[in-house]
Amino acid sequence: MTSNAELFSASQRRIPGGVNSPVRAFRGVGGDPLFIERAEGAYLWDVEGRRYIDYVGSWGPMIHGHAHPEILAAVAAEMQKGLSFGAPTAIELELAETVCTLMPNIEMLRMTCSGTEAVMTAIRLARGYTGRERIIKFEGNYHGHSDSLLVKAGSGALTLGQPSSAGVPVELTRATLVLPYNDLDAVAAVMREQGDQIATIIVEPIAGNMGCVPPLPGFLEGLRSLCDTHGSLLILDEVMTGFRVAPGGAQELYGIRPDITTLGKIIGGGLPVGAVGGSRKIMETLAPNGPVYQAGTLAGNPLAMAAGLRTLQLLQEPGFHQRLAQQTEKFCSGLARVAAEAEVPLFITQVPGMLGLFFREGPVQSFQDVMGADKERYGRFFHFLLAEGVYLAPSAYEAGFLSAAHDDAIIDTTISAARKALQQL
Ligand code: PMP
Q1: Which atom of ligand 1 is nearest to the CA of 116?
Q2: How confident is the model at residue 1 (pLDDT cuts 50, 70, 90)?
Q3: N or C terminus of the chain: which is more exposed, having fewer CB within 10 Å?
Q4: C-beta neighbour count of 325 within 10 angstroms
Q5: Which atom of ligand 1 is nearest to 265's Cα?
Q6: Is 147 a catalytic residue?
């Protein structure tokens, strides 16, 4: 048998940090990562044969649980026809039509291979379309690892204490203004001064890369109206929230119209897909029709399209999101109850299918509030639960994800494990 420890030490010799994406290295919680052998439904199995209830869900895509038979079958059928053609296919159109139906603010979209690429394109598009260079982003929001967005970023950048990366030209970061999340006054003040130079305000409509921090009432509406006043474009980065919090994402949940939407994760059902979409007028500025260049050898890959399409079809079943919201509520209220019993301050945020755990008193509305949570305590909680067979995100700054496979029994088992863990904290 190969052990997690053996694989990790060998991997560290060939792959930086032993991982292909930083948060996987467990630096946020200490200890060594698990090497996963397989997954099914709400469960993961590591290479040592141990089973875990999974609240990471591959960081968001697995909204139907792992290895869903219908999604696997769709991919298998597509695979028989060949892996990649680098030419247009009918299934790309079918996925594009499905996305436009679910998100009526999107009239056209371009597929990419990751969320990072989708957002990178969205920013270039906003700059190309407006002829302006500056952008506004929010502290602790993560929009992938492209240069101009790795400024005070969330997710792994935050976990490693490197919210701004080495290797990014200062010139590029000068055009990125970073403001506090959920602080509309701060945005209004900057827009008053520089609104005519701002190409776009980009925001995670529900911040999901510093735990889960929902928008305060009026925040997104305020951004929309500031963009309208100053001729800037509003980008909603729905890589995480798209198709999760509602069939049409956070823009449906809160009734906010973005100019550009970025998608990832669920749109690929577990295979590498991202997308950037918006009105026909904006999207027509992309190559080959317009002057903003963007491309991808494997973009629109048929296997990835098949996984995404089946995933989006399945989540349109009646009651899907209501049930996901109910299960999230059951999980969060159960956790809150056992935390109160154990007299551990634990503030929990939730939206359908997604949650944040903050070891502190509430409320948690800003990056500063998130920083005030006890991350060592989160690390201890994480390891207690891991020993009990529950796999939470290996960082206090990541959201938790539920899937349709998280049924009552699985949630009850998790809450019992959490009760034990909280009493030992
Ligand atoms: N935007 C948001 C809101 C994200 O959560 C992420 C990834 N967690 C990205 C962009 C980047 O996506 P990817 O990792 O697929 O490049």
Answers
A1: 16
A2: low
A3: N
A4: 17
A5: 15
A6: no
Query: Which pair of structure tokens corresponds to residue 4?
Result: 């997690």
DSSP3 helix / strand / coil % (the chain, rounded to 5): 45, 15, 40
185 belongs to the catalytic site: no
- For 269-293, write each residue's pLDDT tens digit: 999 999 999 999 999 999 999 999 9
pLDDT above 90: residue 162: no
Nearest to 200 by CA among 164, 174, 172, 176: 176
Read off the DSSP letter of residue 60.
T
Q: Tell whether ipTM is more than 0.90.
A: yes
In the structure, which protein residues have their CB atom closer than 6 angstroms to any atom of ligand 1? 59, 114-116, 119, 142-144, 155, 204, 208-209, 237, 239-240, 264, 274
DSSP sequence for 206-263: SB-SSS-BPPPTTHHHHHHHHHHHHTPEEEEE-TTTTTTSSTTHHHHHHT---SEEEE
Work out the average pLDDT over 200-208: 98
Place of tokens 């209004």: 188
CA of 162 to the centre of ligand 1 (A): 17
What backbone phi and psi angles, to 5 degrees, belong to 123? -65, -45
Work out the average pLDDT over 203-220. Answer: 98
Query: What letters, b where the CB count within 10 A reaches 16 and e where it falls short, cover 95-119?
Result: bbebbeebbebbebbbbbbbbbbbb
Top mutation candidate among 202, 239, 276, 401 for ligand 1, by most atoms within 8 Å of CB: 239
pLDDT range class, residue 123, cuts 50, 70, 90: very high
